[in-house]
Design goal:
Blueprint: E1 2-6, E2 9-11, E3 17-24, E4 33-38, E5 45-50, E6 57-59, E7 67-72, E8 77-82, E9 91-97, E10 100-101, E11 105-109
Parallel strand pairs: 2-11
Antiparallel strand pairs: 1-3, 3-8, 4-5, 4-9, 5-6, 7-8, 9-10, 9-11
């Protein structure tokens, strides 16, 4: 049972990235999935989640309107589309479900 987070990178302010959270060993669609991030010197914070039932989503204020969650059940993957990125979005991003954590993918927003 594993989660693999990927898709991070270096992007300029205002740019976009799409993070992927792919599950192996279980069907991700059966579970709610959350995305978290941890910036240097700060605690890990939850930023968004998608439900297991109706696909409803939740976002914290700092990312609402810029980030969008979606599922691709055929690929057993949850995506976090991040638009209009800001330097404050720089962090290590993790996905989580049922206590299983992905390894994290680094997002750096810098000119």
């Amino acid at each position: 049972v594993q989660l693999q987070a990927s898709g991070g990178g270096l992007v300029q302010p205002g740019g976009s990235l799409r993070l992927s959270c792919t599950a192996s060993g279980f069907i991700l669609d059966y579970y709610a999935v959350g995305w978290f991030r941890q910036a240097p010197g700060k605690e890990r914070e939850g930023i968004s989640c998608i439900s297991e039932s109706d696909g409803s989503t939740y976002y914290v204020d700092s990312v609402r309107g810029r980030f969008t969650l979606s599922r691709d059940n055929a690929k057993n993957t949850v995506y976090l589309q991040m638009n209009n990125l800001k330097p404050d979005d720089t962090a290590l991003y993790y996905c989580n479900t049922q206590g299983v954590w992905g390894q994290g993918t680094q997002v750096t927003v810098s000119a």
